[in-house]
Design a protein that fits this description.
single chain, 397 residues, alpha/beta, Aminopeptidase, Alpha-Beta Plaits, 2 domains, eight-stranded mixed β-sheet, 26% strand
Amino acid sequence: MTSPFLADAQALAEELTALRRDFHMHPELGFQEFRTAGIVNEQLNELGYEVISGVGQTGVVGLLQGGQPGERTVLLRFDMDALPIEEANDVPYRSQTPGVMHACGHDAHTAVGLGVAKVLAKHRDKIPGAIKLMFQPAEEGLGGALAMINDGVLDRIGPQVDRAIGLHVSAMHELGTAAVCAGPMMAAGAGVTITVHGKGGHGAMPHSTVDAVVVAAHIIVALQTIMARNADPDDTGVVTIGSIEAGKAGNVIAETAVMRGTIRSFTPEVKALLRKRVPEIAQGVATALGATADVQISTGVDATVNAEAPTSVMYDAAVEVLGEDNIDTTFRTTGGEDFSAVLARVPGNFFFLGAANAAQGITYPHHNPRFDIDESCLPDGVAILCDAAVRILRGEG
């Protein structure tokens, strides 16, 4: 069989590419997606959707009631925000906003979302139940999903959502493939800030100081023992300190050192372990070396957990478009995703759509200044999501 929506999606290929490139050229940071949201609003209105703007500050919701009787409502989510990265690609659609770039593919997600809107509107008379499109701001660490949830996207704006689905284009997967997995697929993640307070002084007289840099170095090494010695070897977790700031001169012993990093986990147990042991170790090491340490851990995001039944539906839809041999059902990543807030409240599935093309050199990772996608993936994303949404509305999953 072939997806009933694939031909319609493929007919939109040029339009999807043009949309994606337009969004790419005009990236907007979280909660600043005014231009992007305006385009989404305009197109959804033209397609006959009921449109609610300003949800979660700059989010847009599109509601479509199907022409057939049905009790279910399915939500499809598409994030819109860019990153504070200067683009290094030399392409005609290069970002025109200095220091801002779509380096994670959200431009593609928004384009796919508008493609989904067009295809589902075309087939409205055959669709049971209701479609709810969630065009989300501020996925990149600013809590856009939760902002829209708090504004009622799941329950007070239109009918209550029964299932939720979404996608992410993936530089980790080649064009023509997808990863559709049940269970925890993406990790819980939180930011960590550790500030060491010592006693500064002359670099030639360390005995009269408490060197915050040395203390910080010991803390960084000790933190790696959490997963190595406190966690079950079968469990997965990450503790990364990616930034350290201390001192400005080579002959001055710094009084303070500030470390920033991230912790990642798939299970509630490892999440709790990391949140407990990071402060214990940082403060304990600091005390042992005559300093003190303040530790702050952000709320972060929960693990992105795909429910079994909706995942089965998404798998079937992906197989119809890409073929069974091209679907990975075992992939996990310690990257985080705030769609987890939706999936914690509504059963659903979030999948990865292959967007890399090694032959064309499109292999740079997400959040890299040379990140790009093979835009041939866009119609596949539209077809898979449309097929999965209609299957769910008809009672599957």
